[in-house]
Design goal:
The structure is a single chain. The chain is of the alpha+beta class. Helix content is 25%, strand content 40%. It has helices spanning 5-26, 105-140, 146-178, and strands spanning 41-42, 48-50, 52-75, 80-85, 92-93, 98-102, 181-183, 188-193, 200-201, 206-223, 235-240, 246-254, 264-272, 283-300, 305-307, 310-317, 320-325, 327-332, 337-342, 349-351, 363-364. Helix 2 runs antiparallel to helix 3 (146-178). The protein is rod-shaped, with a radius of gyration of 48 Å.
C-alpha cells in the first residue's frame, strides 16, 4: 500500500518525540543524598565540671611593693670630718648604738675652755655673794652707806648673769661635742653606708640608711570602683617573688584620695616580719579576703567566659553545647571559684577551659567513674 506524504510526516514526528522522552528519562540526575550527621566529640573527665554547692570567699587580687614602716637616712648634725665608721651594710644595730664618730678635737677644746670660764664665773659669783652678805651686816650697823651697799648688789647680779651665760656656753659646747658621736635612732639594719672615714661632711651630710625590717607594709593599689569593698583589718594573703611560702597581713590604713592617673586608691597592709624573712622593696601579689559566702552554687573560674561585659558558660544539654548567660557573685581568686547567682541549676554539667568548641557542637560525656 502506498503511504501518503502527510502520514509519513506524522510518523516521523511521533518517533522523534519518543526518542527525546527516552533520553530525558535516561539522563535525569539522581536525587541528592542526605548529609551525614557530624560525629560527637568525646570529652574526657577533666573537660567537664559540675555546678555544685560550696563556700566561696569573695576576694580581690592585688599587687604591690613591700616597704619598711620605719626607715630613715642618718645624717651628720654638725659639720666635721668623719673619724670612724663603726658599722657596715647588713649589720643589725640597736637603738643608741654608736655607728660613727666625727672628729671632736676642736669641740673638746671648746668644752675645756667653757668649763674653765664657768669655774671662773662661779668663783666670782661666790665672792660677790660673800661680799653682799658682809656689806648687808655693815649697812645694818651704819658702817657703810646705802649707795655702797647698792653697788655691791649690782656686782652680785652681774656676777650671777655672767655665771648663767658661762653655764649656757658650756651646755652648747657639750651638745656640739655629743653630736660628734652618731647613734642609731632605732633598732634596725644598716641598708647603706653613704660616707667614708676621712670625708668632710656639712650639716645634714648623709651617713647611713637604716631600716627596721620587723614590720613591713604592702602598698597595694585598689581600683577606685572597688574601694567600697575594702575595710580596715581585712586579711590579705600574698606571695613574694623568689619566696615559696605564703604570708599574711592586715589592712591598717586606706588613703583618702584617688590617684588621678591610675584611678586607684593606695591601701596599706601591715606585715609582721620579726623573723626578717622578707625585705623592703620586694614585689608581692596578694589576695584580699572581702566576705565569705556559705553553701552557694559555684563553678571553677576557668569555666567562665566573658564577652562584651557578659558572663556565660557552655553547658552540655542532651549531648549538645548550649550557651548560657550567667549572673555571678563572689569571686575567689585564691581558690579559683566563682559564685553562680542565676543562669544555671545545681548539677548542671559545663564545659571546662582548654576545650575549643563552639555552641551547638555535639559532644559525648565521659563515662562516670
Amino acid at each position: 500500500m502506498k503511504l501518503r506524504p502527510r502520514t509519513l510526516w506524522i510518523a516521523a514526528l511521533t518517533l522523534l518525540g519518543a526518542g527525546v522522552l527516552i533520553a530525558a528519562v535516561t539522563h535525569q540526575p539522581a536525587p541528592a543524598s542526605t548529609p551525614a550527621r557530624a560525629a560527637a566529640v568525646e570529652l574526657a573527665q577533666e573537660d567537664v565540671v559540675t555546678v555544685s554547692r560550696s563556700d566561696v570567699t569573695h576576694t580581690l587580687a592585688v599587687t604591690g611593693t613591700l616597704q619598711a614602716e620605719q626607715q630613715t637616712t642618718i645624717t651628720a648634725q654638725i659639720e666635721g670630718q668623719i673619724a670612724a665608721i663603726e658599722v657596715r651594710p647588713g649589720q643589725r644595730v640597736q637603738r643608741g648604738q654608736i655607728i660613727a664618730r666625727l672628729d671632736a678635737s676642736d669641740l673638746d677644746r671648746q668644752v675645756t675652755v667653757a668649763q674653765a670660764q664657768l669655774a671662773k664665773r662661779r668663783d666670782l659669783l661666790d665672792y660677790n655673794r660673800r661680799l653682799s652678805e658682809r656689806n648687808q651686816n655693815l649697812l645694818k650697823q651704819n658702817f657703810i652707806s646705802k649707795n655702797a651697799f647698792d653697788t655691791t648688789q649690782s656686782q652680785l647680779q652681774a656676777a650671777a648673769a655672767d655665771a648663767h651665760v658661762a653655764e649656757a656656753q658650756l651646755g652648747l659646747a657639750r651638745q656640739a661635742q655629743a653630736k660628734t658621736v652618731v647613734r642609731a635612732p632605732f633598732d634596725g639594719v644598716i641598708a647603706e653606708r653613704l660616707a667614708e672615714p676621712g670625708q668632710h661632711l656639712g650639716v645634714n651630710g648623709k651617713l647611713f640608711t637604716l631600716i627596721d625590717l620587723s614590720s613591713l607594709e604592702l602598698i597595694a593599689n585598689i581600683p577606685a570602683r572597688r574601694i567600697g569593698e575594702i575595710r580596715l583589718e581585712q586579711t590579705v594573703s600574698f606571695q613574694v617573688d623568689g619566696f615559696p611560702a605564703r604570708y599574711t597581713g592586715h589592712i591598717v590604713r586606706i588613703n583618702p584620695g584617688v590617684n588621678d592617673a591610675s584611678k586607684a586608691v593606695e591601701v596599706y597592709v601591715r606585715i609582721d616580719n620579726r623573723d626578717d624573712a622578707l625585705r623592703s622593696g620586694l614585689f608581692a601579689q596578694g589576695i584580699i579576703d572581702i566576705a565569705k559566702h556559705a553553701s552557694v552554687l559555684a563553678l571553677p573560674l576557668s569555666a567562665l567566659h566573658e564577652e562584651n561585659g557578659q558572663s556565660y558558660v557552655l553547658a552540655i544539654e542532651s549531648g549538645k553545647l548550649v550557651r548560657h548567660a550567667v549572673r555571678t557573685g563572689a569571686r575567689d581568686e585564691h581558690n579559683g571559684r566563682i559564685e553562680i547567682i542565676d543562669g544555671l541549676k545545681q548539677d548542671a554539667v559545663v564545659l571546662a577551659s582548654g576545650v575549643q568548641l563552639a555552641p551547638g557542637a555535639m559532644v559525648k560525656l565521659p563515662a562516670r567513674r
